[in-house]
Amino acid sequence: AQEPKSPRAQEPKSPRAQEPKWWGSIPINFLRRKKAKLLYRQSSAFRKGAMWYETANNEYKTLIGATTYSVSDNCECECEDSDYDDQGNPGVTAVYTEPLASCDESCNQFEDPYGHTLCKKRAIIIPLEKQSDGVVLAESAANMAGATVNENSPGFTKDDFVMYGSIHMQMRNDKNLEEKLKKLYTGYYDYKFYLDLK
Known about the structure:
The chain is α+β, with helices and mostly antiparallel strands.
């Protein structure tokens, strides 16, 4: 048989005792803000990584000199939209550019009053590309300093110099290079440059 409950245990709790404790929500709100900040940092890092992939090829071409840049007289606005997802987490939703009629104009016309779209002005950069094999510029490889024979010399064509299908990084074991070096060392390009084959 069950023991009867004490009269005090059977008394209804006061309305104040049934209210949720206000301090119990502090850790939950703190954790939500902390998680939201973490998710925002992660989304920003992911966006930067995606943007790096989009520009990695041009960055490499710049390093080897295959791409140079010229600053134009025109400007544009780079805009970034940010918003909250279904769970209330902030993040960047879109990055895009808007043209300006002149560099004197402001980017404020593309921003919203609630701060969801932020824009900054930048000059339009025009890329100028040169041919390369991924390491050496074509103009550098073709115009060796001191070279006296080229495709424009009498009796020669472009095929005598260009190695189709070969790139700089495979030169060590390249058949095209072997063929061209044999021609070079046996006086094909200049009878004054000749080596006895051994």
